[in-house]
Design brief:
With about 325 residues, this protein is an alpha/beta fold. The protein has five domains: about 35 residues; about 100 residues; about 35 residues; about 45 residues, no CATH class; about 50 residues. About 55% of the residues lie in helices and about 15% in strands. Strands 1-4-3-2-6-5-7 form a seven-stranded mixed beta barrel. Strand 2 and strand 3 form a beta hairpin. Helix 6 packs across helix 7. The radius of gyration is 69 Å and the shape is rod-shaped.
Length: about 325
Amino acid sequence: MRVSNETKVGALAVIAVTLIILGFNVLRGKTMFKSGNFLYAKYKDTKGLIISNPVFINGYQVGAVFDIENANENLSEIAVTIRFNKGYKIPVNSIAAIQENPLGTNSISILLGDAPNYFKNEDTIKTAPSSSLLGDIMNTLSPLGEQTKNAITSLDKVLTNINKVLNDQNKENFSIILANLTTTTNSLNNSMASIELMLQKQNGSIAQSFENVNKFTKNLNENNNKINSIINNIDSTTKSLKSADLNSTISSLHTAVNELSVTLKKLNTGNGTAAKLLNDPEVYKELKNTITSLNTLVDDVRVHPKRYINVSVFGKKDKTTPLSKPIADTVAHD
């Protein structure tokens, strides 16, 4: 049977198309025959995941995405088939998460669990919401952006309040305040200059004060022995006072004062000689007359001695009249 050239060309074309399709699927990681180890994962959003995207465990590629199809008619859930290169033992509590990479290819990362049981071929693995570097950054920056927005709003309110406060009159007042601050600053500078002058080592008043203090301290040091002696004398005096029976002395003084008070009271109110001498004017007059008589007698003896001494040497006896009162120069005047 002779085959025409057209038939040969058509058959070659079919074979070529078939090889191209098979080769394309092989390059994508999908074969016409479903052989190997598979797990299924269901996602609400695959984040642009495509067939032949790699699957990693701890950063090591263990397989690839074999197929992606909708799990139901409304596309609320998408089923992803994962084909493993070998029969790896994956714990049943492991999780498959989509890793987004804005600068490269998305992938699936399997986080291994610690269950003692392992997945069997064509089991379904649990999934987690997809994560990406850009998504993590945005999630981190989102609160910061909100805080920045709030800060800008608060700053706008503050600036509005400042504009309300800074009217023309207040601006003038602020100018006056700034001028006063300038004056105060100049005064502080002058004060600092004065303080610096005071703090000079040789001519400053503080330095001179310290020098005087040093001199005073030196004098105290030089007179230390004298000060110690004075302190010892004071201590001795204090001990003597402490050892003295001051209570007995004070009691004796108190008794003497009481007795003196009683004596004075008796002198003022009593009937004795001393009391009458102090209080009775008649006694005073009699005492004064007695003294006057004594003065008269003494003056008469001095003026007329012959009347009282009869000695022949002086001649005959003086018979003149005796004095009746003392001579004026010998009388004690009141």
